[in-house]
C-alpha cells in the first residue's frame, strides 16, 4: 500500500479561469463607463485618475473573489482542462476586445 497523493488540476484551473473573469470584467466596466454617465461617475473613485480607478479596482476585486470561490470549489478536483482553457481564453479575448476604443466607442450615446 502506498501513500502517494494524487495531484489534481483544479487549483491551476481556478486561477486560469479567474484571470479570464477578471479580464472580462475590466472590458465590461470599460464599455459600461462609456455607455452610461452615471456608471462612469460611480467608477470615478479618485478624481485624479477618473473612472479608470474604479474600472481596474472592480476588475481586481472580481478577479480575486472569483479565484477564491472557484479555488474552494475545485481545489481537490480534476477538471476538464481543455474546456477551462477555452472558456478562459474566450473571456480574455472578449475582455481585451472591449478595452479597444473602436469597440467601446460603439456604445457611446450620441
Summarize the entry for a quick read.
With 110 residues, this protein is mainly α.
What does this structure look like?
This protein has 110 residues and is mainly α. It has one domain (10-104). Helices cover 71% and strands 0% of the residues. It is built from five helices and no strands. The chain has helices at 10-35, 37-42, 51-74, 81-98, 101-104. It is elongated, with a radius of gyration of 18 Å. The model has no long low-confidence stretch (mean pLDDT 95).
Q: What's the SSE pattern?
A: HHHHH
Rg result: 18 Å
* Count of spatially separate domains: 1
Q: Mean pLDDT across all residues, rounded?
A: 95
Structural class: mainly alpha
Q: Please count the helical segments.
A: 5
Assign an overall shape.
Answer: elongated
Unreliable segments of 5+ consecutive residues: none
User: Proportion of β residues?
Assistant: under 5%
How are the SSEs placed, and which strands pair?
Elements lengths: L9 H26 L1 H6 L8 H24 L6 H18 L2 H4 L6
Helix pairs in contact: 1-3, 1-4
